[in-house]
Amino acid sequence: MSSNRQKSLLLLAGAAAAAGFVAVGYRTWHSSRKRTLLGQMRKRMLLDDSGLIEVRDDFCKQMVAGLNGETSSLLMIPSMVDIIPSGNERGRYLALDLGGTNFRCVYIKLGDGKGQIEDVKIEQCEIPEHHFTSPAADLFTFMAEKMVAFAKTLGFSRGHASERPVVGFCFSFPCQHISLNSGKLIRWTKKFNNPGAVGEDPVRMLEDAFDRIDFPVDVDCMVNDTVGVLAAARYLDSSVMIGMILGTGTNACYVEKIDNVRKLAQTPRRRRQTMIINIEWGAFTSKTLPRLEFDRDLDSSSANPGEMQLEKLTSGMYLGEVTRRILLQFAEQTGLFGGSVPELQTPGSLTTPDTSRIDHDSTFFGGPTGDILRSELGLSHWQTFWDRQLVRDIVRLVAQRSSQLIAAGIAALLRQMERDGTFGPMQRTVVAVDGGMFAHYRAFREELLSALERIMGAEAAHQIVLKHQQDGSSMGAVTMAGAAAGAPSQWRSEAGG
Ligand code: GLC
């Protein structure tokens, strides 16, 4: 080989080695920046033991303040429910369930035997996008029309006075109750923002909508979805004390001693010793919450800025969007996915069902994660194994923060109910839960259980049974309609008083 050829070969090898060295250095520098940022985020988003206790304690404080009628972000709404289906109800009832991204028409036929359900039908109806912001009367007419079509297929017809169909209304928004079937909408939450409803009575609005289409009905009860879940669970097991929703939104209700509900002190007679309280915990606001810059940005671009802080950190409507915002921050600050990623700029492009699928991707190379990023975000940039691993770590971090905060809420609730072991031996407590996040996001459920163990101790946490109450809100509302229809009418208007 000539010395010239030898020289050029050496030069070439040298250049290749230098390029390799630069590439490896560049990648290492980049991945170390990614790791550093991930570490910083983990520190700011997750709570250590004392942080968890601080959230729980502030939660407890605000629950008491809310029950006393003092300033608190927790509304602690008396549900005015003191009739719970007993299993002795008879007849055919309908219910309308509005709360998440769909609404449901529900039918039940209760037979003669105790607790005998002869027939159930549930039809899920999609809500057209414009109805999340259309005038409230239009939304209600739309629902009434769907409901009438559904009822007719079941043989219901337009009836007069006492023959009118009885409808239960599961309305999953904060309402100040006046009685079991009247109240006032305090505010819209989640995706809904329909003018003309805040301050109005949703029951009247629904009955008016049925009147407009000439199919009058009696709406006998209005319940929050958490109350529906609790009622459905107690129909089968009277020891259930808490109803919880982990879905598009999040919230819980529980059975409280009436003497603790100080703000009801002025109300005259009471039949019962207890009252179901709708906490509206999605609205929990506290300095103890780990909110970061992307949470504040998400909040200010939401339909209800400044409101529903806990819900925005924990529920299905938001976790996908929180994740997208974090990924964008990584792209801009650490060069993830090549740095400039227009695909990551679209709000709402990553949903919680997407992130839950990513979280459940247990393959070594993260192929399914890559597929989801391509199909849902349209991400065309070539992804390395490490990029996909980082995405999985971020998704899990978002779920972990959510589960920690929900666990702190459950721990606070058990303390308020004197069932967390501090007031005597720890009692077994069944929490009935419904909602897509709980039903379909296994990794989230596991994180929730381990967060409960951390905050309460393993022994106490094992006494808490989180029981999935499938279709709980719908079933609760329809059986409540049966219970309310059987109760004397003067009872309905005074319920809980
Ligand atoms: C929102 C509503 C609340 C409901 C929850 C779950 O937080 O304000 O009433 O229970 O979503 O659907």
UniProtKB/TrEMBL annotation:
PROSITE patterns given in the database record: HEXOKINASE_2
Domain Hexokinase C-terminal: 241-481
Catalyzed chemical reaction(s): a D-hexose + ATP = a D-hexose 6-phosphate + ADP + H(+); D-fructose + ATP = D-fructose 6-phosphate + ADP + H(+)
GO molecular function: ATP binding; D-glucose binding; fructokinase activity; glucokinase activity
UniProt-listed Enzyme Commission number(s): 2.7.1.-
InterPro entries the UniProt entry points to: ATPase_NBD, Hexokinase, Hexokinase_C, Hexokinase_N
One Pfam family of this chain: Hexokinase_1
GO BP annotation list: glucose metabolic process; glycolytic process; intracellular glucose homeostasis
Domain Hexokinase N-terminal as annotated: residue spans: 40-235
Known pathway: Carbohydrate metabolism; hexose metabolism; Carbohydrate degradation; glycolysis; D-glyceraldehyde 3-phosphate and glycerone phosphate from D-glucose: step 1/4
Keywords, comma-separated and alphabetical: ATP-binding, Glycolysis, Kinase, Nucleotide-binding, Transferase
GO cellular component, one term: mitochondrion
Family matches, as PANTHER family: HEXOKINASE, HEXOKINASE TYPE 1-RELATED
UniProt family annotation: Belongs to the hexokinase family.
Protein name: Phosphotransferase
Species lineage: Eukaryota, Viridiplantae, Chlorophyta, core chlorophytes, Trebouxiophyceae
